[in-house]
Design brief:
By secondary structure, this protein is an alpha+beta fold. It folds into two domains: 34 residues; 84 residues, Sandwich (Immunoglobulin-like), CATH 2.60.40.2880. 22% of the residues lie in helices and 47% in strands. The chain is built from one helix and eight strands. Strand 2 and strand 3 form a beta hairpin.
């Protein structure tokens, strides 16, 4: 008697063998990336916060207006408000005591884009941008 051959086993069913990095390694790389980005953000925020908390009066304040052409600029200073017609880009740096009100307003003399910025010891504390015909930007803060 002749013996029958066993049937051929069926092909395996399921997802194909994965290629590339193992899933656990992919997860580890993503988590390390998230950790590095968050650490950098926290370090930057702490640098600004520590600088703010340890700073003593007087403070160095920089008012900036960027754009093109000319603008009418009004800004607060320890000796009162100043109103100037300036060519852009423009900036001025002042020394102010703790608690000083900071404010800058600029009105462009022509159409375009205008940005007002206040920087406290190198850190931007407020910014405003406007565009159009005769744009006006305004921003304020406290030293």
């Amino acid at each position: 008697m002749q013996q029958e051959q066993p049937p051929v086993p069926p092909a395996p069913v399921g997802p194909p063998a994965s290629r590339g990095w193992p899933r656990g390694l992919k997860l580890a790389v993503v988590l390390i990336g998230v950790f590095l980005v968050m650490t950098a953000g926290i370090a930057y925020a702490n640098r600004w916060l520590i600088s703010y908390l340890t700073s003593t009066s007087p403070h160095s304040i920089t008012y900036q207006v960027t754009g093109s052409g000319t603008a009418q600029v009004t800004y607060a200073a320890p000796d009162g408000a100043h109103n100037e017609s300036v060519s852009l880009p423009w900036s001025t740096t002042l020394t102010v005591p703790d608690g000083s009100a900071l404010e800058i307003t600029a009105t462009g003399q022509s159409g375009g884009f205008l940005t007002c910025r206040i920087q406290w010891e190198g850190h931007t504390i407020d910014v405003d941008s406007e565009s159009g015909n005769g744009p006006t930007c305004s921003t304020s803060g406290t030293a």
